[in-house]
Amino acid sequence: CVCVSVGGKEGGGSMAGIALPFASGPLPRSCSSPLLRGPCVRTSFGSLLVPKGGNFPASRSLRVPATLIDQEVRFVECGGADVVINSSAARTRGPPFNVLITGSSKGIGYALAKEFLRAGDNVLICSRSGDGVKKRVQELTEEFGPQHAWGTTVDVRDGQSVRELVSFARNNLGYIDVWINNAGSNAYSHKPLVETSDDAIMEIVETNTIGVMICCREAIKMMMHQHWGGHIFNMDGAGADGRPTPRFAAYGATKRSVVQLTKSLQAELQMQGIKNVAMHMLSPGMVTTDLLMAGSGTPQAKFFINILAETPETVADFLVPRIRTIAGNGKAKPRYIRFLTGIKAYSQILARLAFNSRKNRHIPEY
């Protein structure tokens, strides 16, 4: 059922507060919504959550899901009154947020999911691995409680699979405030392009470029019809700044393409007058994931990984508060959030050369 909380903090969640003149009295029904629980009153759209004790004071403010704004709602148990919920009464968006993260059954995606949950948000994780998603949802539920983490399988390279992901999100969370395109691949290949197989090249390009295109398309189509819109964050990687990426040229080329794609979509949204959806970039820097560590066999790679790389948890702890600030400020201005800036990288390299610091942090150097 659809639940609408009554009273509580003003401006919380992606909801609008509307004062509605209902009669006082006990409301005995209960709600089994995965989003909210408590005593409810039945409506034509579902159920209304009321304060403990089940009494609804006259003219008490309702906090209404954005999907009901500008729609006529018949409150069956409240005398059948017809009420039009006006968007002009909407308040500024605030937490908790509904967050969708692709490629989130491990690595930086999973670390981001945990950090959003620690902040009190609701998270939908997804990846191609059904068993991996199921395991992670169970872990997240045990740590953060029920009805905060959801999971499903998705192949970002396939449009129908991504559309099914959108349907899953709508059915279980109602709407998405933040969509993070984190799914990526280097096919675990660290060799010159002339030695890279056709299958490896296609895996990298289809996941990192085509997959991001499809996810951006479907996320925009979903969010543009949400009253509050939403924010889409694309993840960069080595090569995004145009620098060469020898031994993983295909990966670097796809990450460069994501930056261009994001800029083009920012321009398209402006051109189409879509003001409630914003495109952003995330730069996690070097993260000690399977993708990075698969290429750590050379002395040079070990040197830079120990100096510059950080754990997924450290990076997520930096990125999530900044993402949540953007999602909550009600503005659609594009942002590029960088964890490893040039100044930080150079200072860490100089510290290593001058003081031999940051040695053997992640892998032994010989």
Q: How many β-strands, per DSSP?
A: 15
**Low-confidence segments:** 1-92
**Whole-number mean pLDDT:** 79
Global outline:
globular
Portion of residues in beta strands equals 15-25%
- End-to-end distance, in Å? 61 Å
Radius of gyration from the CA trace?
23 Å
Based on secondary structure, the structural category is alpha/beta
**SSE series:** EEEEEEEEEHEHEHEHEHEHHHEH
Count of discrete alpha- or pi-helical segments spanning 4 or more residues: 9
User: Largest sheet, described in full?
Assistant: 7 strands, parallel
Strand arrangement within the widest β-sheet reads 11-10-9-12-13-14-15
Helix content: 25-40%
Can you characterise this structure?
The chain has 366 residues and is α/β, with parallel strands linked by helices. 37% of the residues lie in helices and 19% in strands. It is built from 9 helices and 15 strands. It has helices spanning 107-118, 130-144, 159-173, 198-223, 249-271, 290-293, 299-308, 312-328, 342-355; strands at 2-4, 15-19, 29-31, 38-42, 46-49, 61-65, 72-75, 81-84, 98-102, 122-127, 149-153, 178-181, 230-235, 277-283, 336-338. Strands 11-10-9-12-13-14-15 form a 7-stranded parallel β-sheet, sandwiched between helices. Strands 1-5-4-3 form a 4-stranded mixed β-sheet, with no helix packed on it. Helix 4 (198-223) packs parallel to helix 5 (249-271).
Brief sketch in words of this structure:
This protein is α/β, with parallel strands linked by helices. Helix content is 37%, strand content 19%. The chain starts with a strand and ends in an 11-residue tail after the last helix.
